[in-house]
Amino acid sequence: MTVTATVPKLQLSGLNKSFGRGDKRIQVLRDIDLSLADNEFVSLVGTSGCGKSTLLSIVAGLEDFDSGTLSVDGAPVTGPGLDRGVVFQSYTLLPWLTAQGNVEFALKAAGYGAGERRDIAREHIELVKLTKFANAYPSELSGGMKQRVAIARALSYRPKMLLMDEPFGALDALTRHQMQELLTRIWEEHRLTVLFVTHDVEEAVYLSDRIVVMGIGPGCIKQTFDVDLSRPREPDSASSAEFIDLQREVLRSIREESLKVELA
C-alpha cells in the first residue's frame, strides 16, 4: 500500500534573516526549521529580542528573508496573501468606520461584492459576540472589543492560517482571559492553523497544541514542548498539576536564554 505524505500547512526550512548592511549587518534569525500541521495551534515564546515577531512577520509576508524556504500548503510565500490572516497587538482599525465597516473594508479589498460583504461581516461580528456594537466606531469600543473586531476582520476572508502577534498583550487580566476563551472556542469550531506569539507562558500553555521556545543570539529554535492537555480547555485548567509542571519547564527553558543575555 502506498502512503501519501501529508504536506505541512506551514513549512520553514533553513530560514535566515539579517538586518543592516556591511559591517553593521546583524543576523536575527538562524537556520529556522519549523512546520505546522493543518489545524494545529502553535505558540512562539522566548526572551525579548529573540526574533519571535520578526519570524511571524516573515510568515505573514511583511518581511523578506535572506535564505532558506517558506511555504504554505507546499506553495512558496512571496508576500502577503489572503491565505494568512494577521492580528497584531495594536488593533489597526480604521477610526472612521464602524465595527461592521472595518470588517467589510477587508472583504472589499479581498474582492467580495457589496451584499456578500455585508452578510459575511455580520456573521463574523456575531462570531466574536459584538452584534450589539456592529454600528459602533472604534472610539466607542473598549480594548477587548477592538481586538474582537480585529479578529473578526482577520477571519472574514476565510484564511487558511491565523497569525497573531501578542494580540492580548495590552488588555487587562480579566479581558485577556475572556479573549483567550473566545479564541479557543473559535479555533475549536472553525479548525484553523494558528501561529501565536506571546510573552505569557501561561497563555501559551492554555491555548496551544505545541510551544516553541526560541533561543537568542541570533534567534533560533531552542526547544519544543507538546501540550498534552485535554480539550476543550477550561479556565480552571491552569490549576492542574500537569499544566503547572509544563509551565515551569517552559519558563526554565526561557530563563536559560535570559541568563545568556545577562552574562554577555
TrEMBL record:
Alphabetical UniProt keywords: ATP-binding, Nucleotide-binding, Transport
Pfam families reported in the protein's UniProt record: ABC_tran (PF00005)
Name of the protein described by the UniProt record: NitT/TauT family transport system ATP-binding protein
Domain named ABC transporter: residues: 10-241
GO MF term list: ATP binding; ATP hydrolysis activity
Family affiliation: Belongs to the ABC transporter superfamily.
Family matches, as PANTHER family: ALIPHATIC SULFONATES IMPORT ATP-BINDING PROTEIN SSUB, TAURINE IMPORT ATP-BINDING PROTEIN-RELATED
Presence of the UniProt keyword Nucleotide-binding in the record: yes
InterPro entries per UniProt: AAA+_ATPase, ABC_transporter-like_ATP-bd, ABC_transporter-like_CS, ABC_transporter_ATP-bind, P-loop_NTPase
Domain of life, source organism: Bacteria
